[in-house]
Amino acid sequence: MSKKILFGLSTILVVIGGIAAMSAYEAHVINVTAHIENALKVLPLSGELVFGTVFPQEYLEKRIWITTSQSFCEGDQRRVLAIDYKIVQKPKPIWPIPEVCEFYGLPEVTIEDMRAYCHDYSEDLDCCYPSLCPYLSKDPIDDDPEPYDDHGVAAFHDPNDPSSISTGTIHKDNDLSDEWIIDLDVPCFEGYCAQDWTYYGWELPYELESETFGCDLWVEVTDIY
Length: 225
Known about the structure:
Number of domains: 1
Distance between the termini: 65 Å
Strand content: 15-25%
Oligomer: single chain
Low-confidence stretches: 1-19
Number of helices: 3
Helix content: 10-25%
Order of helices and strands: HEEHEHEEEE
Shape: flat
Number of strands: 7
Strand order of the largest sheet: 1-2-6-4
């Protein structure tokens, strides 16, 4: 019986080896290519909105424009017509990493690692800017036809609340660009607010006076169709 089992195994090995040897005599090449490009373009192209030095209870505005890339808008591209996107806020790390930050000297640490760290340890002002995100609104100048309305968020909101994410849609036939107002409604410091202050609970600790605040806005594509 043992001899028959050994013979059967050797036969299987020979057959498998024969198939492998035969398959090497013929090959077919399928050439696969794809041109990959961003669907959206965000203006200003510098990627910066700088408010400079501001003062408590000031109101200031900047504007951004979101439109399609040239490739997406080309006439022969009828396979896809619309882009859904969202504007997400993220904590702003001090980057490049300063020497006083505990991550200094670790080249494998990325800016995304730092954003995650600043989300969890926002009080670490050696590594992270105090957050400007709650005080920024994203308001669309909404002249879009139905059903392409964009949805904004007012200032003084919780950036971690999913409802604080602004959304919009670009459509190449009748809504090629969206204009957004990014306004800064400057908060006041505890104990130093004017009598007309109405955003109770949003006052800043006085020890943050003269600090530079920051926030990163991300325009992310959520669907293309």
